[in-house]
Amino acid sequence: MTISAPRWDLSNVYPSLESREFKAAVEDYKKQVAALEKFFKNKLSKANAKTKAKDLAPLVGKAIDQINKIQTLSATIAPFIYSYVTTNSRDKVAMKTLSEFEQASLPMNQLMTQFTAWLGKLAPKLDQVVKNNKSATAHAFMLREAAKQSKYLMSEPEEALAAELSLSGGNAFGKLQGIVTSQLTVDFELDGETQKLPMPALINLRFHPDENTRRRAYEAENQAWETVKETLAACLNGVKGETNTLDKKRGRKDAIFRIHRMAAEADHAPYRPGECPGRRVDRG
């Protein structure tokens, strides 16, 4: 009897990547980002450290509310796309959709950088602002943390350029690593039959009950990695090279310390939507 592999059923989110519902969600995302951009330009950018705290509070609150709404939508769209990309790297429609959504997300990334820089200028009044707005109070930790991190930002034009170049830099190298490792296959004898196993299947043999099978699979895995080591090294250099270069420009001394600190502080951060709302089912 052939048992089919478990599949993710995300039809309760959107019917498909090409469905009317999904495309409408992406358009809604773009419209919301455009509205936030207009709010930043017409309202937020005209307020500064000289503005009274009672006048800053509603601006901060409105910005938070709009950002949360956009990120909630993004946290549904992005995992839906990745549910296709991460399970089938040969899905051309999914890869194309991911690239398009990354492009659509660039303005939002740039707005978040602007918001962080703006909060940094308001740091002396931030405590008062937090006390005068419900949304600001609920996100007090993140607001204060953003204000502290603002000292590591480059100029606005430099940050905008860095965000745009990331898609063809570290982000592209990350995708290449995923494609190479997911599509790598190995001829392996299992249960008396030579099979062409993808790397995830070969790696899973580490838990095979037979010791000899585990050993052979481990050796085959190491040999397979050797065949793509130059490509993977280039990917690692591309990702970390971009990170180290930007960290140096931003005045950060240690990228590793920054990552550990962010992870530790995230344990105390408010909930941010990011879980994929689909459900897993077995399809025959």
Structural write-up:
The chain is mainly α. The protein has helices at about 20-40, 55-85, 90-120, 125-130, 135-140, 140-150, 155-165, 170-185, 200-205, 210-225, 230-250, 255-265, and strands at about 5-10, 185-190, 195-200, 280. A two-stranded antiparallel sheet has the order 1-4. The protein is elongated, with a radius of gyration of 23 Å.
Count of DSSP H/I helices = 12
Would you give the CATH topology of the largest domain?
Butyryl-CoA Dehydrogenase, subunit A, domain 3
Adjacency order of strands in the biggest sheet: 1-4
Write the CATH architecture name of the largest domain. Up-down Bundle
Q: Tell me the total number of β-strands.
A: 4
Which spans of ≥5 residues are poorly predicted at pLDDT below 50? 260-284
